[in-house]
Amino acid sequence: MMIRFTTFSLIGAALVTLAACSDPLDTAQYAIDPAPAKDTLPNRLGRAELREISLPDYASGQEIAFQTPDGALRSSPDNIWADDPKRAMTLALARQISEMSGATVIAEPWPLASDPQRKIEVRVDRFLAAADGAVHLDGVYYVSPASYAASGGDTVRRFDITVPMGGVAGKAADPGLIARTQSAALGQLAAQIAQMK
Q1: Which of 21, 102, 134, 181 is the most exposed place for a label (fewest CB within 10 A)?
Q2: What total of structural domains would you count in the chain?
Q3: What is residue 118's predicted lDDT score, i.e. its pLDDT?
């Protein structure tokens, strides 16, 4: 009887400890959510299908990464993205381009009966809250005709976007500040793609 009581007591204590460790209030989730587009740009894309954004491994993980002064990239399971970063950034980018230019940019797969005129692909080399106190978004984007029958040529453009976080260089940035600054950087990329510059 004593052994059974002790076993149940240990199991109960373990469950209470496990529940305390997985308190949802200990985990904060942040969204990629660029501010509504303010600029009105000419529609240079028409109907365009945006492929899923290609991100570095550290930027595509669930935890929000940042760089410390020693150059290391670090993250915490207490601060995570609210959605899969590739999916969230692709949808946000498509929405931003559409809002600011009037183009119909939709993340793949294309859901409409009428085919897209163009395809857009974005390959990100760096998307990082760096130790210098800024978010850096570098890479290349491609715009090409959706089919051989479509008009227009290929466009290849590099982008190199830097947005200050407003924090102190060399300090681990606040995850909410990182999320807001990365959202702003994504908005700038949307404007560049919409203008194809």
Answers
A1: 21
A2: 1
A3: 95
